[in-house]
């Protein structure tokens, strides 16, 4: 920094001249724009060396100041020019590098193994497609529910065993994890008048955890409410469903049962698609265990108390509803013998369900 701090005009002019030279030397070794800009600000910035030199101008006689000012301007211009040239040559070098890269277009591509859908997702999508084809809408809703939407509206009184701590997960604020997807149907009916024709797929929660139960499992329910909806409509709908899901020769069997939210209620069995109920295959069938039938879910006519709870006229409309566990449907359809396989994320299992 020759002459810096020296007193005469000539000293200052020389200092400005060496400023540009010092700067050029300093950035010669820099190869990135941010570093070059930083160096520039060390010379020309608010606290830069040029600015510091300008502060000495006050000590110079008036008459000699223009010469020093001119030297300052030359230094500034020189520094800016050096920056520009250096950045331009860096850009050029980068471009030359890009252009000199050669690509062997004959190399085989790197294969990416496409992902597949989880079997439970496949089953859900397939069921959705079947019901969409029968004019149903797919509805979803919250996993955390009020006891009213999950139980009370469904004619399930406070002393019903399903409401015990043992079966239901309670969370803070007096809320629960839904134990079925019925609250979605309740919310849909509350939101508007009949007709309602929906299916509600989604995960539900119960305090079970053993070889045949997981505390969370995918469930699917259907609901059709309108004037003159009959048990016959329920049966026809279930037949159409099982024939699309398991195959066109599938039959159904309804066994009298009980649910608080339906009356009458029935368990739904589908005829075994593996042995088709025919001897001798049936007697040793691993799927239906020789019964010829597969239990797939529950169903019934919507209880008038449920219709009344959502503000529907129980004398004007009727409805049917049904429910099924999607993991059971997936086990039956794909011959999976251990429920836990669905939740272990073992690729050897998952890769057996191809894409598409
Ligand atoms: C099951 C049994 C069932 C329903 C679910 C339902 C919903 C409303 C009103 C009336 Cl909003 N019923 N759902 C009805 C009968 C059976 O599920 O999931 N068994 C595996």
Note the gap between the termini. Answer: 74 Å
Q: Judging from the principal axes of the Cα atoms, what is the shape? A: elongated
The fraction of residues in strands falls at: 15-25%
Q: Uncertain spans, ≥5 residues at pLDDT below 50?
A: 1-5
Give the neighbour order of strands across the main sheet.
1-5-6-10-9-8-7
Average pLDDT number: 92
Output the keywords.
38% helix; binds 2-{3-[(4-chloropyridin-2-yl)amino]phenoxy}-N-methylacetamide; disordered N terminus; seven-stranded mixed sheet; 11 helices; alpha+beta; three-stranded antiparallel sheet; 356 residues
Question: Brief overview, please?
Answer:
This protein has 356 residues and is of the alpha+beta class. The chain has helices at residues 9-27, 33-44, 49-54, 65-100, 119-132, 147-150, 182-191, 231-245, 304-309, 326-334, 347-350, and strands at residues 137-138, 144-146, 170-171, 175-177, 196-205, 216-226, 252-259, 262-271, 293-302, 318-325. It has a seven-stranded mixed sheet, sandwiched between helices. Strands 2-4-3 form a three-stranded antiparallel sheet.
Question: What would your notes on this structure say?
Answer:
- The chain has 356 residues and is an alpha+beta fold.
- The protein is 38% helix and 19% strand.
- The chain is built from eleven helices and ten strands.
- It has helices spanning 9-27, 33-44, 49-54, 65-100, 119-132, 147-150, 182-191, 231-245, 304-309, 326-334, 347-350, and strands at residues 137-138, 144-146, 170-171, 175-177, 196-205, 216-226, 252-259, 262-271, 293-302, 318-325.
- The strands form two sheets. Strands 1-5-6-10-9-8-7 form a seven-stranded mixed beta sheet, sandwiched between helices.
- α1 (9-27) runs antiparallel to α2 (33-44) and α2 packs antiparallel against α4 (65-100).
- Residues 182, 185-186, 221, 223, 259, 261-262, 297-300, 302, 306, 321-325 line the site of 2-{3-[(4-chloropyridin-2-yl)amino]phenoxy}-N-methylacetamide.
- 2-{3-[(4-chloropyridin-2-yl)amino]phenoxy}-N-methylacetamide (2NL) binds at residues 182, 185-186, 221, 223, 259, 261-262, 297-300, 302, 306, 321-325.
């Amino acid at each position: 920094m020759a002459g810096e701090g020296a007193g005469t005009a000539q000293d200052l002019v020389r200092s400005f001249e060496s400023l540009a030279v010092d700067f050029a030397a300093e950035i010669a070794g820099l190869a990135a724009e941010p570093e070059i800009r930083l160096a520039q600000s060390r010379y020309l910035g608010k606290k830069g060396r040029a600015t510091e030199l300008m502060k000495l101008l006050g000590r110079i006689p008036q008459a000699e100041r223009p010469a020093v000012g001119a030297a300052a301007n030359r230094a500034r211009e020189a520094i800016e020019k050096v920056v520009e040239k250096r950045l331009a040559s860096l850009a050029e070098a980068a471009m030359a590098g890009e252009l000199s890269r050669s690509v062997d277009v004959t190399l085989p591509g790197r294969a990416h193994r496409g992902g597949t859908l989880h079997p439970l997702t496949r089953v859900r999508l397939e069921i959705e497609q079947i019901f969409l084809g029968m004019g149903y809408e797919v509805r979803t809703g919250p996993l955390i529910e009020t006891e009213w939407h999950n139980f009370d509206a469904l004619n399930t009184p406070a002393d019903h065993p399903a409401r015990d701590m043992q079966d239901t997960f309670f969370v803070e604020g007096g809320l629960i994890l839904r134990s079925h997807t019925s609250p979605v149907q309740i919310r849909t009916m509350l939101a508007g008048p009949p007709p309602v024709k929906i299916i509600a797929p989604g995960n539900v929660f119960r305090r079970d955890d053993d070889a045949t139960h997981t505390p969370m499992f995918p469930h699917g329910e259907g609901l059709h409410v309108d004037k003159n909806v009959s048990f016959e409509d329920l049966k026809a709908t279930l037949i159409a469903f099982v024939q699309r899901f398991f195959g066109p020769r599938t039959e159904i069997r309804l066994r009298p049962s009980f649910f608080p939210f339906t009356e009458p209620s029935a368990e739904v069995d589908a005829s075994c698609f593996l042995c088709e109920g025919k001897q001798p295959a049936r007697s040793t069938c691993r799927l239906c265990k020789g019964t010829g039938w597969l239990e797939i879910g529950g169903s019934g006519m919507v209880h008038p108390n449920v219709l009344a709870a959502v503000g529907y006229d129980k004398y004007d409309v009727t409805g049917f509803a049904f429910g099924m566990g999607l993991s059971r449907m997936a086990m039956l359809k794909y011959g999976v013998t251990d429920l836990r396989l669905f939740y272990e994320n073992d690729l050897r299992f998952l890769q057996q369900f191809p894409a598409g």
